[in-house]
Structure formats: C-alpha cells, structure tokens
Amino acid sequence: MENPQVLADSSQGLSVFMPILILMVLGVVIFWGAVLVAGLIRPSKPSKLKQTAYECGELPVGQAWSHFNIRFYVTGLIFIIFDVESALMFPAASVFKKLNSIGLGGLALIEILLFVMILVAGIAYCWSKGDLDWVKSLSSKEK
User: Of the residues 3, 71, 98, 112, which has the fewest C-beta atoms closer than 10 A?
Assistant: First the structure.
C-alpha cells in the first residue's frame, strides 16, 4: 500500500510553482504598464537644443568619436580585479579563528596563502608586461 502523503505531494504537480508564475507575470505586466503610461504622458517636443549633448553648458566642439587611451581602461580593470580580490580576504580572516578552533586552521591558512600567492603572481605578471607603467618607454616595446 502506498503512502498517502506521497500521493498528496505528487498530485499537486506544477501547482506548487503557481505563486512564482503569478509574480513573474505580474512583474512583466507592471514593467510594460509603466513603459506604456510613461510613453503616453511624457511631453515630446524635440528641438535642436534638446538634442545636443549636455557638456556642462558648453557647446560641443568636434566629432563625438575620438581616440581613447587604452591605459585608462587597463589600469581601471587591474584596480577592480585586485580590489575585489582583496575584499574577499576579509571574510576569510573573520572566520579564521572559528576554523582554527575546530582544527581546520592549517587548511584555512594554506588556502589563504595560496590565494595571496595567486594574487602576487598576477600583479607580478602585470608588472612584468608593463601594464602598470603609465608612460611606456619605447625600449620596453623593442624587447
């Protein structure tokens, strides 16, 4: 004889997911409703002045496309990578005492040191490639 609880659970089928489906449909309806209402009530009076780029009250000069120094991007990317990785060290340091008290301090220390070694290897690689030099000399390109 089968368990009546198992039969009750299997008879529900997909109805368990009905609240999730209702919330998803409600979210889509609210989003598109807001877009529609905003499109109906907003003023639409374009002018040449409104279509210009706002640059602190100055009239734009020249073309919008210009050369961008890639070093800004590379330096920012390197900063974000190492900043986020160093922020990941705080949770590890906060639970280290608990791990040490239950006998896993050595394993935690090895994992933290391995993580730091990977970070040091990454920063050494960036340094050796010259990505941390703001002004690259011509001699570094010849090598």
Answer: 3
2 in any annotated domain: no
Can you give the pLDDT at residue 101? 87
Low-confidence ranges of the chain (pLDDT < 70): 1-12, 55, 57, 64, 136-143
Residue 91 belongs to domain spanning: 70-142
Q: How many domains does the chain have?
A: 1
Ramachandran region of residue 133, left (φ > 0), alpha (ψ -120 to 50) or beta?
beta
Give, in degrees to the nearest 5, the angle at Cα 125 between 120 and 130: 125
- Distance CA(49)–CA(60), nearest Å, equals 11
Residue 51: inside a domain: no
List the structure tokens of 98.
Answer: 């608990």
CB of 60 within 8 A of CB of 52?
A: yes
Phi-psi region of 82 (alpha: psi -120 to 50; beta: other; left: phi over 0): alpha
Q: Which residues contact 62 (CB under 8 A, 6 or more apart)?
A: none
